[in-house]
Design goal:
heterodimer; A: about 120 residues; mainly beta; 4-stranded antiparallel beta sheet; about 0% helix; B: about 110 residues; 7-stranded mixed beta sheet
């Protein structure tokens, strides 16, 4: 079974600065996907970024980028130029790549990020 | 607008009174799933469906039922709700087994008293 660990329950960052959210996971799979989801106070789950495990290049989406270390099973999210709208809970999630199987997302416990004005 | 629609958004009910949370998607997605979110536990999968009439249990299926009679709809049924089913529920769908991520509904906050 896969597990996802987000060890920091809360973080705070000054507006316009950079913050990194950590995530580690445990799996015996070789092919899988990793995701970061954002849940603002509206509670909507919003996909921030995804990474395919067989791609060595780290994914980037505008101000959001990841540091994917496959051997270390680490998948951290970097938010640059933090904005007030980034205030939310962030979930790291794992999904194994397996045709015909349950394409289940395994989530971490989440981290609450507060951006200070 | 492409979306997953859940209803109701909030629900307070009493123990033992059957209820249904509806989920509908307008994107022709084959894959749909239900999750519950609890503080300190993240989201956990309840049931999933790979297509019409194909459903199976996730990690926490006890006390829940689902059906998939049409591609767009995937209701979650609580036959006899109990207080431990008080939670935030999400329906999600994907066209490609989630490889590019899931589209989530806006959530249903359920309280069972």
């Amino acid at each position: 079974a896969q597990t996802v660990t987000q060890s920091q329950p809360e973080m705070s960052v000054q507006e316009a600065e950079t913050v990194t959210l950590s995530c580690t996971y445990d799996t015996s799979e070789n092919n899988y996907y990793l995701f970061w989801y954002k849940q603002p106070p509206s509670r909507q789950m919003i996909l921030v970024i995804r990474q395919e495990a067989y791609k060595q290049q780290n994914a980037t989406e505008n101000r959001f980028s990841v540091n994917f270390q496959k051997a270390a099973k680490s998948f951290s999210l970097k938010i640059s130029d933090s904005q007030l709208g980034d205030t939310a809970m962030y979930f790291c999630a794992f999904m194994k790549h397996s045709a015909g199987a349950n394409s289940k997302l395994t989530f971490g416990k989440g981290i609450t990020l507060s951006v200070r004005p | 607008e492409a979306q997953v629609t859940q209803n109701p958004r909030y629900l307070i009910t009493v123990t033992g009174k059957k209820l249904t949370v509806t989920c509908s998607q307008n994107m022709n997605h084959e894959y749909m799933s239900w999750y519950r979110q609890d503080p300190g536990l993240g989201l956990r999968q309840i049931y999933y469906s790979m297509n019409v009439e194909v459903t199976d249990k996730g990690d926490v299926p006890e006390g829940y039922k689902v059906s998939r009679k049409e591609k767009r709809n995937f209701p979650l049924i609580l036959e006899s709700p109990s207080p431990n089913q008080t939670s935030l529920y999400f329906c999600a769908s994907s066209p490609d087994r989630g490889r590019y991520g899931y589209t989530f509904g806006s959530g249903t906050r359920l309280t069972v008293v």
